[in-house]
Amino acid sequence: MPPAKKGTKPSDNGLKRIDNKYKLTSFPQAVAINQKNYYTEYLKRDDQAMILRQLVEESAKAKESTRQDEPVKHADDEMDIDEKEEEEETQGSKDIVIHLGSRNLRIGLASDTYPKTIPNVIAYKLSPAEAQVFDAAEPKFKSAEDPDFALIHKEVSQDFKDRMRFYKRRVASNSHDSVLSYNKRAVYEDIPDHNDPYRLEWTDVSVAPTIIIGEKALRIPPRSIPRYRLLWPIQHGYFNEADYTSTRQLIGDIAMIIEHAIQSELNIAKSDLSTYSAVLVIPDLYDKVEVSELIDMLFRELRFLKVGIIQESVAATFGAGISSACVVDIGAQKTAISCIDEGLCVVDSRVNLPFGGDDITLALSKMLQLSQFPYAELNLTYQYDWALMEDIKSRFCTTNDADITVQLYNFYQRTPGRQARKYTFKTFDEVMLAPMTYFFPDIFENDNKLKKRHTLFERSTDIYDGTHNDPYSEAQVSLYSRYASGANSALAQMQRQTAQASTPKPPVKSSTLSHIQEDTPTSSVAGTPVPEAPPATGTGSTSGAGVAGGNAATRAAAGPSMQALSLALMDTSVVIPAPLDRAIIESISQVSKSDEARGKRMYENIIMVGGGASSMPAFNRLLEDRVSMWKGWATGSVMVMPTPRDMDPTLLVWKGASVFVKLKIASEVWIGSRDWDLLGSRCLQYKCLFLY
Hints:
Elements: H1 50-68, H2 77-89, E1 95-100, E2 104-109, E3 116-119, E4 122-125, H3 128-135, H4 147-166, H5 175-185, E5 189-191, E6 211-213, H6 215-218, E7 228-231, E8 234-235, E9 238-239, H7 247-265, E10 277-282, H8 288-300, E11 306-311, H9 312-320, E12 325-330, E13 335-341, E14 344-345, E15 351-353, H10 357-370, H11 383-396, E16 407-413, E17 420-427, H12 430-436, H13 474-483, H14 489-502, H15 513-518, E18 524-525, E19 528-531, E20 545-546, H16 552-558, H17 562-569, H18 580-594, H19 596-603, E21 606-609, H20 619-631, E22 640-641, H21 652-661, E23 671-672, H22 673-679, H23 684-687
Parallel strand pairs: 1-10, 10-11, 12-21, 21-22
Antiparallel strand pairs: 1-2, 2-3, 4-6, 4-7, 5-17, 8-9, 11-23, 12-13, 13-14, 13-15, 16-17, 18-19, 19-20
Helix pairs in contact: 9-21, 10-11, 10-12, 13-18, 18-19, 18-20
């Protein structure tokens, strides 16, 4: 082809574009959206969400089946009444209510009057090599001569003396000397087996089972052959990540304990669970990952038909038959405080404190040892000695001022392989000082309680921005910044600056933009943006945070919320040793921020549940005095309501959950296995009575 001449067109040389009507690609081309004005209806209507659409369809099917199955009117109306009564009796017979505690598991059918209670523990057989490593471990508890314990013990004793002086109670000056002199001379008495009506039957391990669950696990002799190790899957209200090395083992142990309880106590085979529904009672200030793992376990391991969840404090109000109260739940290893208003939990009032009745048992044992407790071989790492101290606490501890004097008591100590022994001993103020440590929690051994938390199960994070999205509570954050020894100073400084930024300021008499920007807080704490205003009540607040070097619109769009900043700065392995009375005041103060009259009603409607202190005589009065003292006597009355008649406060939460299942609204909270397989934890926001 000859070279093209200069000045000629491409078409003159045979280069011409011909339109053959072929597209450059076979993919459809989307028209660009007008960025200035566009609108979407995605998930704006209920019929666009599968869960809500299913609720409507199920409701329509239920109405249709009810219309078709209407009974024919009989001449004898009494027969219809009997049939209705039989239907009411069977209501809840297919619903199993599960309440997992740190020490005990309470489980039963919703139609039962009381639940079955079994220890939430499992024992594994150890090999000889594992037994040697286990024996070489450090002692679990500190001694009574610990200097930190002695310092706080002196403070508690002084507070006790001030209380006795305030109520004009006479205290003999030689009381302690009398107790010490008697306990030093006390000698035990052997009780033959045929004279011991409460003789214990220890677990026979001669057949060497691999796993032992429940009460039998607690009665394994400590030096048995083969050796066994006890594992408690729940500790201080959370997963026990300190004693486990695998997430599957921890979840599997919980599943085995529940399965054992269902088969042995409820006489229901595992193959029949596909026709039953489960109601899981969860903490108020829950961990999202733990709740999701438990629900997944109920579906995949135990094969339940449906699963529903309810919070502990809400269940407590259902059990007590009240709609609004400040619920103080003192368990074995956890104390939870929440304010319930008209059946819903006030999210910013929730408080979790990792101490409970077990800490009182440990403090009582140390105080008795300082008083020359006659049973010198006491070792709380042995389950039979721990059960002994629990019995002494439940029988002799009191907070009634009139009962505090030198008292003579006795107890029976039973050890595997020898006869029971009867001891007599005297006490003075130890029986009241131990319950008073709820208001001096620094005396507890708080060092290693939550040390390994979130080492197996990571914290829940948002899938879009990666921030922590566990439930947020203003009361919990405030107590953390005030009492936690390892609290991040940035959190406390951020709260102070937030409070300053939220106070109203005089109007700026200038039209320049620079003065307006100077009034906006733009400083940062350790590289963390400072929020402009405190968040609104609830977990869904997205208030803007200040970012240095940007205008107000940019800061509002780019800054994280106050909740995200607080959750990021809080160390979940740090214990909050807040006194019980201060924690109650902080919880109710969050309610008073929005409505002072409502907060006043909460002070007059405090209800105690759980077995940590509710059974101690006059503890309600002691709590009323302590809260009134710090709140101020002239700012309103404080009243701790008694539990309903003939109702054990340790069973009140379980009872409330069983009552909730029988209500009509419970039909809207059931999660099906198909829903869980498709959506996972995302379906909980549609199926819960609280924000997930």
